[in-house]
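Why does residue order matter? Because the sequence determines the fold. Keep that principle in mind as you read this record.
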Amino acid sequence: MTGFTQTLAAATASLNRQIHAMPFNRALADGTLPEATFRGYIVQDAHYLEGFARALALVAAKASDPDAIALLASSAAGAISAERSLHAHYMQLFGVSAEQFAATEVSAACDHYVSYLLRVAAIGNFAEGVAALLPCFWIYRDVGRAIAERAAPGNPYAAWIDTYAGEAFDEGVTRMLALTDRVAAAGDAACRARMQAAFARCCWHEWHFWDSAYHERGWPAP
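Structure:
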């Protein structure tokens, strides 16, 4: 991690510590997270993944060089294939059918996050889009690694932990970090300020998504 991504990390360090200490992630690590809570999380995460892949594709279309297009387009395909396999594993394990998944309402936290990502990807510039996409990669890798270090033996969520703590996911995150630094270096101060704002907002959305999943929140009553 060098350059601009160091600035991003420093600016969101407090929120990042809160994410690592969240009850959801602590319980996931020691294997005590209730199955119903994790099942609800996986269903919402699968809904989120569809929006995330669309945002990746939108941002890829704005890239000005072939390397960035290839990275983001391949990440969109990878997000769909690898994480859908993980979701399918747990949905089969928990008995969630395709019909049940389709009938499950998207939570307010999931809808809010996806809507923000798609808005930035659609009407923001390329640099903002890259910065908005980065937290989903970076935070999941770091949380996955931290959980893997302290995960209880026989953890029922080992497949989730192995995915995000694994080498393949790490390689994708490393490429996204390098792209973010490269894009920031090519931009001016105003561009970097917009990137930092988008990154911070999506870090908050990551926290909110897990918090909502842990408390099993849907939509607030009117």
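The first helix runs from residue 4 to 11.
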